[in-house]
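Retry 2 of 3 after timeout on previous attempt. Resubmitting structure tokens to design endpoint.
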């Protein structure tokens, strides 16, 4: 079934196996058992779209999502990956205040 929220949003198809694994991991995390999911594939295989869907699922389940992005210049700037994470956290602090934004972070 098609659950797009806008007409221009691409339909998300053929990833039920990956989504099931992600949903299982989110459910385990809700019970206190965290983990790591890695997403690897060749360029153009839908990694970004899968991560967008993962973000949607995680937020719907009540998780705070902070995003970082690696670049090819990572060796020269090893902490650049954290730029997005810090920006998302600062946006949350501005929107909700420090105590609320930091609640639940380990």
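Retry 2 succeeded. Sequence:
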């Amino acid at each position: 079934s098609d659950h797009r929220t806008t007409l221009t949003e691409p339909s998300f198809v053929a990833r039920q196996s990956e989504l099931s694994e992600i949903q299982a991991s989110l459910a385990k995390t809700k019970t206190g058992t965290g983990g790591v999911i890695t997403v690897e594939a060749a360029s153009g295989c839908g990694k970004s779209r899968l991560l967008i869907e993962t973000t949607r699922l995680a937020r719907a389940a009540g998780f705070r999502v902070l995003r970082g992005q690696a670049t090819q210049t990572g060796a020269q700037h090893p902490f650049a990956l954290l730029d997005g994470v810090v920006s998302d956290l600062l946006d949350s602090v501005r929107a909700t205040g420090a105590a609320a934004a930091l609640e639940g972070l380990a």
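Attempt log closed. The helical segments are 16-30, 47-60, 82-96, 98-102.
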